[in-house]
Amino acid sequence: MRGATLLKQGVRLVAASCLLTACEHPIAVVTPHAEVADLVFSDSASAVVFMRTTDNRAWNASPLVLCEGDTHTLVPKPLDFRGMPVDLVSRRDLEIRGESVQANVVWEPLRGRGWLIALASGTTRVRFLVWHLTHADLVTPWLDVQVQPRAACTRPR
Amino acid sequence: MASSTTLRVAIIAVGLVWPTAMFGQRASTPADTTARKRTDRDTVRAQQLGVVRVTAVQGSGVALVRPVSALDGRELDRRRAPSIAATIAGEPGVTSRSNGPMATQPVIRGLTGDRVLVLEDGQRTGDIATTAPDHAVTIDPMSARRVEVVRGPAGLLYGSNSLGGVVNVVRDDVPAERVARALSGAFSGQGESVNNGGAMHARLQGGAGALAWRTNAAWRTAGDTRAPNGMLPFSDLRGHDVGIGAALVDVATSKGIWRIGGAARDVASTYGVPGSFGGVVLPGAHDGGVYVALARRSGRVDASWRAPDVTSARPPRWWPRVTQANLSSQFVRFEQSELERGGFVGTRFGQLMANGDLLVQYTRHAGVPVRGNMGGWAQWRDFRAEGSFTGTRPGVLRGAAAFAMEEWELDSLFNGRAVRVQVGARWDATRIVPLDSTETALVRDVRTRRFAAPTGSIGATVELMRGVTLGTSATRAFRAPAIEELFSAGPHLATYAYEVGNPQLRDERGLGLDLFARLNRGAVRGEVAVFSTRLADYIYQRPLVDSLTGAPVRDRRLRRYNVYQADQADARMSGAEGRIEWRVPALRGAVLDATVSWVRGEQRLPVDMRLAAARWAPLPAMPPLRSRLQLRRDGRIWSITGVVENAMRQTRVPPAPATAGATTCALRESEAVRGVGAPALLPAEFCATNGWTQVHLTASRRWFLGGQLHEITTAVDNLFDVDWRDHLWRAKQVAPQPGRNMRVFYRWSW
Asked: Which among B314, B323, B407 is positioned nearest to B360, based on CA atoms?
């Protein structure tokens, strides 16, 4: 008798679990659609536009010339399709990631800004991704970067 | 969210528990026997008229004024393919749109996607097969007992997604008849050489008294498909389809005869979507291929009631007397992931769907006998998407409809000649609520949309002479835009496209006219139909081209995909299809079976594309003229079939845009790697497709051993290994279709 009761309770539990599993939505949370149309980098010191994409087709400062050992602090600002900036500080679901073809230049993301670090001389190409939680929301065109040897570098640091 | 889930669970639980508690098992009564006889009579009548009984609306006579066809028995065994669409391709007016062996969709009279409704035992499948060409219909053909096709607008009973027609796969998951044997079953297996594939299916059924139950399971696996010139990468597949159902059938009470039952089904498959061949990658396609993994779980509850002993009841009067009522409801949980190389989830779709319908059949007498149907239908669908670069917006769709249809038997007014008139009306309403109304550069004004429209049809059949029936029908149909057509804005990896919706879309409205003749006279039987359909605001995916250079527009964010935007234009379609079977006496009863399908679709050009001479241009992706000639001899033991299938060259494509640079329809490896300076590859919609002719051979043999039936079928498809392309596939410029295929099919029934 007790076995039968236990069996009934077990069947009910399994049936209830199956029903709940079947009715649970596969995608429980709706993530708002985010679309970034362009990416602007302003200089951390002067707050002027350092370089930007135009219609996400090309960079206005290509090639970018850096000096070996330079660490350039950049403030990234994604723009939406209206040209309005998307606030990276309040939108914690967005971040800027960087990719370099060669390892002589790396991107170090910080909160609301980032470092473009020229480790060694040479040429490379970098691109930036506006990363939205699980995926890239914007992939910029490749940006040609030239890193001059420290000795040959004429730019003031 | 939690409360709505709890509510749905409660509704389903009540639906499952309440009816079984309500009805007990009763012995068969005279009323019960009479009703069964009536069902048998209906079946015989349907067969005599060449009418297909569509499970969803048994006895409604929907097929009376619509051209229909059906596949079952040996013919179905001969044609079983990895997908339902490929299985029925070649039926009159039917072809398939391929996107790989698994992701094929039925095309009826040139219409596909959300305009062709695929039903499973009369209910919607609840998958997202209609939303994109890479999505598969989640029904394994191995588990099908019968496949029925209704051609032309059939929205009166089936709803607003059947402008092109309806495909109903019959499995009888919820048993409809009592089972005499306590236990019986069948096992079948299939192997094929073109992809080293195998499939198995097993079915068990039984019953005791009023209780009937049925369970079946299908399993399938296949490797990459072999084309005449090489292997088609990323075309492998595997999956399973398992179902179980039970019902209390023909339970007689003083109030009528009842049936109540339920079924559950679990379907899962993983398949590749090819986008490259011979080292050439279609622009926008993944060189590493895209795999789609889907899973569908569904549960349904069916109940029906029949009036007791209809033959002894008083004669029907003007006011309707209800003879039967059917109630059906189901709940579906669907999940699909599109996987990039390395198993990375590119896009993930999830959907919950619940729907239910009530159909009441009645008879009355308005000077002449009248049979009628009326009912209602409601649907709720919660669709969501997530993943990398996902452009498909989440949304909730709610739809409801009410309809009524009557069939008037005018025989007494025409000296006993069988004359039937069928009239019907329907009202549909749909509300689509976006769950994310964020605007983007390409999609603005994302908002809730409501659509509602009355539709209707009128048709008639006249038996001109014994075995010769002429029929006609005129139908006004309606279709609300799909969620994806309204709100999408992003790349769709498996369709090689960046899909852009249009929140301003209006509903599609169609007006169709059909004329058909049915012949069943002596050694000849068949059906021939001509049709014409006008579609106002036909929704189509327009490939965007640069207004200055004429080159295909690529997406701004990734510069990888051709951009397609949902657009509308008036369209008109006309065509003819027919099938004639002639039992040739000189060939010892062999049957010559000829099928021809032709459709011509045109759209009114947008103002900026309008040419001086032509205001209408061909619609993209219209199937070419197809014909199929089959010679078969079905004996008690042996069955032998030879088929010659032909598709003409399709040159009726939209005019290619004027371009500044060179364009091409053929992508070669050298051009693909040359990059800058190479001629721009035109989207497939602008490109013609060569014709082809294939030969298929089939032979089958039956054995009866100890009361058990064994049957083995061997077939060779595409005997001469012809290189052929599917005109409707966006990857046709790169990827060919399967080459020669040897198939072996075995069935054991006991």
From this structure: B323
Query: Which B residues in the span 376-395 are in contact with A, Cβ-Cβ below 8 Å?
Result: 382, 384-390, 393-394
Q: How far is A112 from chain B (nearest CA, A)?
A: 22
Give the per-residue SS3 of A102-119.
Answer: CCCEEEEEECCEEEEEEC
Whole-structure pTM value = 0.83
pLDDT of residue B312: 55
- C-alpha triplet B611, B617, B622: angle, nearest 5°: 160
Using CA coordinates, name the residue in chain B closest to A138. B557
Q: Which two tokens stand for residue B741?
A: 């295929």
Chain B interface disruption, residue of A11, A13, A25, A139, most B CBs within 10 A: A25
Q: Which is more confident, B17 or B700? A: B700
B721-747 in b/e form (b: 16+ CB < 10 A) is ebebbbbbbbbbbbbbbbbbbebebbb
- According to DSSP, the residues that pair with B97 across neighbouring strands are B105
Q: How far is CA A6 from CA A3, B137, B413, B429, in A?
A: 5, 41, 69, 48
Which residue of chain A has the CA closest to B335? A26
pLDDT of B193-230, one tens digit each? 999 999 999 999 999 999 999 999 999 999 999 999 89
Pair type for strands B197-208 and B184-192: antiparallel
pLDDT tens readout for residues B19-50: 333 333 333 444 444 444 444 433 333 333 33
Cβ–Cβ gap A22/B489 under 8 Å: no
Tell me what ipTM this predicted complex has.
0.73
